[in-house]
Amino acid sequence: MNEGILSNVLIAVSLTLVLAGAAAVVFTRHPSKQAVVLSYYGLLLTILFVVLQAPDVALSQVAIGTAVVPLIVVLSIRKVSAIRADHHLEEGEEGT
Amino acid sequence: MNHYAYFVSVGVMLLGVAGIATSRNLVHTVVCLSVAQSGTYVLLIAVGFQYGGVAPIFGGQVGSRTPVVDPVVQALTLTDIVVSAAVTSMLLALVIQIAKRHRAIDPDRLGRLEG
Amino acid sequence: MTRRIRLIVLGVGIAAFSAAMLLAFTGMPRFGGDVHAYRDAAVAASYGHDTANAVSSINFDQRGFDTFGEETILFCAVVGVAALLRPVHRERRREVSDAGHVLESTGLLVYVLFPLTVVLAVNVVAHGAVTPGGGFQGGVILSTGIHLLYVGGRYSLLRKLRPLGWFQQGEALGVVLFGALGIAGAALGSALFANVIPQGQLSDFISAGTVPLFNVAVGMTVCSSVVVLLASFLDQALAIRAERGNGSGPDPRSGPEEGTAS
């Protein structure tokens, strides 16, 4: 029974962490900070999957959720800000 | 504890939806969509969990009589994660395209542009 | 729709959805209970085909056709991304230099980690039927390992080590291989995606019939897909810029190319 309580606590803690992590991702309004938070959130999900005895899922979550998707998000943010910077440069030239 | 895992999964999904609705940046919107989708992972894995169950990898100590957690929902979640990555990348490619066209990625301003 | 109305609609929707979910949860079986009908059937089927990893057995043996559909989703999404992000005629490609201030230790770590990741990925794919892992995980790990070179600040090395054409072929080949294995099941056995090869002994390296072959096919597709995907985004973020009147000057925001990738 002792083990039961321990696993209960573990599950409850990791579930709460996931919920808090999701809130953190959603309420981080700055996109490039959000990519970092998203990566940590992926890690929290991985911990939850390990606790709930799903090693296969944890493995793919750690590879996709903490590495590939945040990397794509970072690259998109960089591209978007490059487009805007180009645009501002152009506007400045046309203005003068 | 009885239904806490299910509440967490719905909570994660609703947080994602709220993020989508209040977002001011399309990249942020796409990330919120992926958060909303991650609620389904939690729900699926929680449905298949069993106290005392071990991971569904047989051999060694784990035989056909050992209680294991549900492998069906784990296979579904695996599929879910890969599809989520595909959807996210597709949407981000579209966001880049929108940024090239309109120079704005605030959904509110885009709405006026499309008029 | 103004922002105010949208927030009101959102509030009503969340309230209604929460109420419906609360109602649904009261009728659901208890969390962590021991009644899992699908589990019992899937475990029996997994044992019947001597596949140690039940998740792999479900993905590639019992529900092979679904996984084929899912692979097609991935394939189409990557083709879509590559089509959307290809350079158009008003854009030019600039040279990306990778001279920069990457820490020596980071560079060294990358060179140590890169071969390790490749070995790990191959191992994960090969033992997909026996231990946790399989084609999906191994494929993603392999492609992540290849992109460690970018974190190490060697974008040019990454471009050399990553013949993109091969990966584009590899992606298609993986999907075709997966389909061919499925049709082989129909030709040699009873049904599409049937497990027709003798299954051997549970937990042996060579066991579980066609499952390891499917793992290899999926690993190929997933690895190539992620490489093509990241290549499209990397190109857009680093190399492709809109054509401008005097766009040949050095980029004013010089030096973000070697930035760390997180």
Describe the structure.
The complex is a heterotrimer of chains A (96), B (115) and C (262). Chain A has helices at 2-27, 31-51, 55-95. The mean pLDDT of chain A is 83. With 96 residues, chain A is mostly helical. In chain A, α1 runs antiparallel to α2 (31-51) and α2 runs antiparallel to α3 (55-95). Helix content of chain A is 92%, strand content 0%. Chain C has a two-stranded antiparallel sheet with strand order 1-2. Chain C has helices at residues 3-26, 37-48, 54-62, 64-84, 104-126, 135-151, 155-161, 164-188, 211-239; strands at residues 91-93, 240-242. By secondary structure, chain C is mainly α. Chains in contact: A-B, A-C, B-C. Chains B and C meet through α1 and α3 of B and α1, α2, α3, α4 and α9 of C.
Keywords:
heterotrimer, A: 96 residues, mainly alpha, 92% helix, B: 115 residues, membrane (chain A), transmembrane (chain A), transmembrane helix (chain A)
Q: List the secondary-structure elements of chain B in sequence, H or E.
A: HHHH
Distance between the ends of chain B? 49 Å
Run of helices and strands of chain C: HHHHEHHHHHE
Given the C-alpha coordinates, what overall shape of chain B results? Answer: elongated
Specify the biggest β-sheet of chain C. Answer: 2 strands, antiparallel
- Uncertain spans of chain C: 245-262
Structural class of chain B: mainly alpha
Number of beta strands of chain B: 0
Strand content of chain C: under 5%
Number of helices of chain C: 9
Q: Please state roughly what percent of the residues of chain B sit in beta strands, choosing from under 5%, 5-15%, 15-25%, 25-35%, 35-45% or over 45%.
A: under 5%
Level of helix content of chain B? over 70%
Oligomer: heterotrimer
Span from first to last CA of chain C? 36 Å
For the largest beta-sheet of chain B, the strand count, sense and barrel status come to: none
Query: Can you give the helix content of chain C as a percent range?
Result: 55-70%
Specify the overall morphology of chain C: globular
Chain-averaged pLDDT of chain B: 83
Q: Which ranges of chain B are low-confidence, i.e. pLDDT below 50, for 5 or more consecutive residues?
A: none
Radius of gyration of chain C: 24 Å
Chain pair forming the biggest interface? B-C, 50 and 55 residues
